[in-house]
Design goal:
This protein is of the alpha+beta class. 18% of the residues lie in helices and 30% in strands. The chain is built from two helices and six strands, in the order E-H-E-E-E-H-E-E. A hairpin with a 5-residue loop joins strand 5 and strand 6. The protein starts with a strand and ends with a strand.
């Protein structure tokens, strides 16, 4: 059984570039204000969602393990 992730977008940081939707169209949506939202905040681990988080130009996407809260992305320094 694979990991479950909790995905969050900090909308105070999001600039609405849409890169997350372009990378992971099943993982993110943009609202009418062009703010990103996770399509499924709790989801199975997904390479495309991770790629979207890594590619966010303002690092507005956080991924944690759903069961423990351990940070998946962004990596801790």
């Amino acid at each position: 059984m694979g990991d479950r992730w909790h995905v969050e977008v900090d909308r105070s940081v999001c600039i609405g570039s849409g890169m997350c939707v372009g990378t992971a169209p099943d993982g993110f949506t943009l609202d009418s204000a062009r703010q990103s939202h996770p399509a499924h905040p709790d989801t199975d681990a997904n390479e495309k969602v991770l790629e979207a988080a890594e590619g966010c130009p303002v690092e507005a996407i956080t991924i944690t393990l759903a069961d423990s809260g351990e940070v998946v992305f962004p990596p801790e320094d």
